[in-house]
């Protein structure tokens, strides 16, 4: 009996999970930066996903989405994708040892949360803010805590909102 061979053009686990992070980013209502995250356990099971947006119960229409100053800046209100993914997890007991796939390198506040819940690897797509102090601090926090940092170099799925 001759067995039929499986196809060779399937996507890797990294492509799959980064694709989920990219798709999650499309849920963001932020007009300038959409970020998505996907947390995965050692068995390649999705533990949680998240995207950058306003906290649950906060009306998106009542807060600023711009880069203004002080209370007119979205940065004082928005919940980042990584933190949303951590908070969306049904059982935090699943997080130690997990990997986090994210479309933008985490800020220092998200880095603290990543370390606190025991995530052991961050796979990121873009690091466009690497020269900013909060991202330098983030990298230091993650490295000091022994979190592996991997710049995703694989193919990027072309997912666009219509």
Low-pLDDT stretches: none
Number of helices: 4
Order of helices and strands: HEEHEHEHE
Shape: globular
Taking the sheet with the most strands, its summary is: 5 strands, mixed
Could you state the oligomeric state of the chains shown?
Answer: single chain
What is the beta-strand fraction? 15-25%
Overall strand count: 5
Strand order of the largest sheet: 2-1-3-4-5
- Work out the radius of gyration: 17 Å
Query: Helix content range of the residues, please?
Result: 25-40%
Identify the notable features of this structure and list them briefly.
162 residues, single chain, 4 helices, alpha/beta, five-stranded mixed beta sheet
How would you describe this protein?
The protein is α/β, with parallel strands linked by helices and 162 residues long. It is 27% helix and 17% strand. Strands 2-1-3-4-5 form a five-stranded mixed β-sheet, sandwiched between helices. Strand 3, helix 3 and strand 4 form a beta-alpha-beta unit. Helix 3 (108-117) runs parallel beside helix 4. The radius of gyration is 17 Å and the shape is globular. The N and C termini lie far apart (47 Å).
List the SSEs and their pairings:
Elements: H1 13-25, E1 36-40, E2 46-51, H2 81-88, E3 99-104, H3 108-117, E4 121-126, H4 133-144, E5 148-151
Parallel strand pairs: 3-4, 4-5
Antiparallel strand pairs: 1-2, 1-3
């Amino acid at each position: 009996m001759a067995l039929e061979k499986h196809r060779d053009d399937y996507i890797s686990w990294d492509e799959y999970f980064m694709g989920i992070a990219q798709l999650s980013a499309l849920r963001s209502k932020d007009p300038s930066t959409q970020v998505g995250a996907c947390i995965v356990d050692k068995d390649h099971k999705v533990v949680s996903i998240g995207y950058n947006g306003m906290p649950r119960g906060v009306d998106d229409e009542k807060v600023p989405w711009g880069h203004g100053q002080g209370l007119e800046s979205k940065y004082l209100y928005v919940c980042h994708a990584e933190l949303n993914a951590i908070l969306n997890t049904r059982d935090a007991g699943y997080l130690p040892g997990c990997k986090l796939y994210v479309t933008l390198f985490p800020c220092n506040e998200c880095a603290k949360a990543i370390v606190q819940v025991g995530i052991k690897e961050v796979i990121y797509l873009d690091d466009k803010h690497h020269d900013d102090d909060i991202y330098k601090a983030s990298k230091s926090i993650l490295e000091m805590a022994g979190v592996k940092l991997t710049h995703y170099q694989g193919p990027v799925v072309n997912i666009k909102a219509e």
